[in-house]
Amino acid sequence: MKLLFPYIYERYLAKQIYVAFAFILFALVALFLFFDILSELGSVKGGYTLPLALLHVLLKAPSRVSEIIPVAGLIGSIYVFAMLASQSEFTILRIAGLDAKRGIMTLAKIATPLILLTLLMSELVGPYSESLSEQIRVKALGSAYESEFKTGVWVKDRLRNDDGNGPVRPGVRYVNVGKIGGDNEILNIRMYEFDARYHLLSIRSAASGRFDHSGTWILDDVTETRFTETKQADPLNPVYSAQTLTHPIVTLQSEVTPQILSVLLVSPEKMSIVSLGRFISHLKENNQDAHRQLIAFWKKVIYPFTIFVMLTLALPFAYMKVRAGGVGIKVFGGIMLGMSFQLFNSLFSNIGILGAWPAVVTAAMPPLLYFCLAIVSLNRVSRV
Hints:
The protein is of the alpha+beta class.
């Protein structure tokens, strides 16, 4: 049967879902921010006052929004469909010609603005506000970003000629950074340079360094020890000479940027797609394992489309009769579905890392399984 007045019913459903979605999203974000504020109160001291702590937490709201949007969409749409079913409005729509296929197409249209909102929050507003939030906290406390490892952050780099402007030459440089401060500053730096045969060339240490806009590191108070192999008659018994030099300032060209260093201190799941892409390219160029980052990258790409999966999961609730359960029970079921998806998504990612599964398959499998569950449930309830 041809649906009567299709655009009117689509606008009506969209309005109902968006209103419920906005209310639930606001409630969930406020709840999470409240717990964030409670956990942040223990850090309030000195220049880090309570208003600054509140500002620090509020600037994290966009990241919270991007995390909660799918669950809020699921709960809000279940509430709307349950209310339509309890008031027999959905029955009228079915009589007018709204079948399961047309319902899915309608939900795809409704989900499009929510997908764009998720991309905006997770890729533009969220990373910027998160960075600004951390800068406020660091400046107020007078501290720096510290790694969870006692030895600091380790990163692999490629060697260039001594003048810093030459091409990449055979060899590798391992850089250890103790702390990362504000304004692109690094502290407690150590560098170990090896040639193509992994013979140690030099050890360099610096008290601090800062990244120049021209793309070079400027290191202060540098102590450098260079090792040179002296020619001997017996090649199996090499002899090395060491020379120690001190420099007040050293400029060094490196592929390790402040952005790469900063992403080493956060989990890949909290990075933007662009930052993840750059970091993955850096790891591959240095022949390092990037499997975890690849899984996180594809999860970030696929994540906005899970909103459509959540809305599709809510559609079968509209076909359930009132006697099958009240609105409250259906909303509770939606909360359980959302929690199960989040848990299953995280579990599947860890299993994919341990099993070295393809990154695309690992990231796409949970949403695909829940979408199949939604289609099977919809076919089953729509026949009643």
